[in-house]
Amino acid sequence: MNPELAALAQRVKGFMPHNEGLALYRAAAEAASQGPLVEIGSYCGKSAVYLGAAAAASGGVLFTIDHHRGSEEMQAGWEHHDAELVDPQTGRMDSLPILRQTLIDAGLEETVVAIVGDSVTIAAHWPSAALVFIDGGHGEAPAHADYEAWAPKVMPGGLLAIHDVFPDPADGGRPPYEIWLRALDDGFIGFAAEGSLRVLRKPVSGPASL
Ligand code: SAH
Ligand code: MG
Cα(144) to centroid of ligand 2, in Å? Predict the structure, then answer.
């Protein structure tokens, strides 16, 4: 990975340890020449720098999706709240201005397209992707909804990456782990694992439900 982008990614606010970001980069580098990369959960653009660096290296594109209003656990009073991300005009969370600045700083404005909206609504109109990275809402309903909406969009032979997969409940919430199990059950095949990142490959031919 381009060392300047690797250094920038580590400075951006967010939730992506560097070792996991590098594993994400490697997966994206494998997929980016085959079709578009899609990320659910841009936040301030930390993981988008790893994915976008891989897309840029092969002339690909990353679509990064977020409504920028924060997940449940990011609202005021919750564990992952950051008061700096509250828009004083509306009193609501807004991470979009920081995402835009991150993409400018990274020189990735041509490579990374920010899509602002609800991930499931967007999926309903989305054709397909060479890699889908799920890192949006981590609650039971949002995580399963993202899996159901986006797993079918992964091209045959394409990759599905899931963040915050914790086999031991002591380490974190269940839903990302549950959707990883669902993916295995649906026929996806393990491709890479690093920290809480899991990357799976969709078989070239398999059940139509995938
Ligand atoms: N990938 C980021 C972290 C993402 S945090 C990083 O590297 O730091 C999860 C993000 O998912 C939040 O910004 C939240 O606004 C977004 N999100 C949650 N539910 C969503 C939904 N239904 N549609 C779009 N974005 C959603
Ligand atoms: Mg995460």
Answer: 15
